[in-house]
């Protein structure tokens, strides 16, 4: 995890000097329920990610995201709790619509694929996890002075499986809807610090360092 953090920080610095119109580094800790054919397990995810985006002539942002996550699938019996390390890659579309100088609508579509392996597995006793995820988010932001607040709602869909010596177990998200609020503090015109708080199918928070032109 430390190596991934330093690697992403190094990439972030280099990308910030490129001609991208947006760069974001995020750290998060979230919980959600995954349904394994009627057996619901809590997934606890610690994640670090990097996003880069380009602004089109129409104002839409097209971006890519990648990163590393640590996943715990919690069981009633602690000895049955499983831990995975995974990497992910995704693309997204983001569309802000200014209603006034201080009020803005926000819509974003995320597509992501993640793949990883159980921590204590090896080539002879291997457990792999793979899943795809779609997130559709709508929000309304209000800017005042150096601050912005944006309540939002997110619809999510997860489709994945765990493959090990016992076979393949398919899972999906137990509840697709979550909601939350994002709080931004602007350091200057293009750079801000964001805290996102989630409730619903996904609970927890994100801390993001962003620069958008």
Write a compact overview of the structure shown:
This protein has 213 residues and is mainly beta. Helix content is 7%, strand content 71%.
Describe the protein's architecture and organization.
With 213 residues, the protein is mainly beta. It is 7% helix and 71% strand. The protein contains 1 helix and 11 strands. Strands 1, 2, 3, 4, 5, 6, 7, 8, 9, 10 and 11 form an 11-stranded antiparallel β-sheet that branches. The longest helix is centred in the N-terminal third of the chain and has 15 residues, at 2-16. It is elongated, with a radius of gyration of 18 Å. Mean pLDDT is 89; it is low at 1-9.
Number of strands: 11
Q: What's the story with the biggest beta sheet?
A: 11 strands, antiparallel
Flag low-confidence runs. Answer: 1-9
Distance between the termini: 30 Å
Strand content: over 45%
Question: What's the SSE pattern?
Answer: HEEEEEEEEEEE
What characteristic shape results from the CA principal axes?
elongated
Structural class, judged by helices and strands? mainly beta
| Count of DSSP-assigned helices | 1
Mean model confidence by pLDDT: 89
What quaternary form is this? single chain
C-alpha Rg, in Å? 18 Å
Helical residue percent band: under 10%
């Amino acid at each position: 995890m430390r190596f991934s953090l330093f690697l992403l920080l190094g990439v972030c610095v280099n990308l910030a000097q490129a001609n991208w119109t947006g760069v974001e580094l995020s750290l998060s800790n979230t919980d959600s329920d995954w349904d394994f054919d009627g057996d619901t397990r809590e997934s606890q995810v610690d994640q670090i990610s990097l996003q880069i985006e380009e602004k089109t002539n129409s104002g839409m942002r097209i971006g890519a995201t990648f990163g590393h996550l640590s996943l715990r699938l919690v069981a009633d019996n602690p000895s049955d709790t499983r831990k995975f390390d995974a990497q992910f890659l995704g693309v997204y579309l983001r569309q802000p619509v200014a209603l006034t100088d201080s009020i803005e609508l926000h819509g974003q579509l995320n597509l992501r694929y993640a793949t990883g392996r159980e921590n204590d597995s090896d080539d002879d006793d291997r457990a792999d996890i793979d899943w795809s995820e779609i997130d559709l988010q709508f929000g309304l932001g209000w800017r005042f002075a150096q601050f912005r607040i944006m309540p939002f709602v997110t619809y999510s869909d997860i489709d994945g499986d765990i493959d090990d010596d016992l076979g393949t177990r398919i899972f999906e998200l137990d509840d697709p809807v979550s909601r939350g609020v994002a709080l931004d503090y602007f350091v200057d015109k293009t750079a801000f610090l964001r805290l996102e708080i989630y409730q619903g199918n996904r609970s927890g928070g994100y801390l993001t360092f962003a620069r958008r032109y």
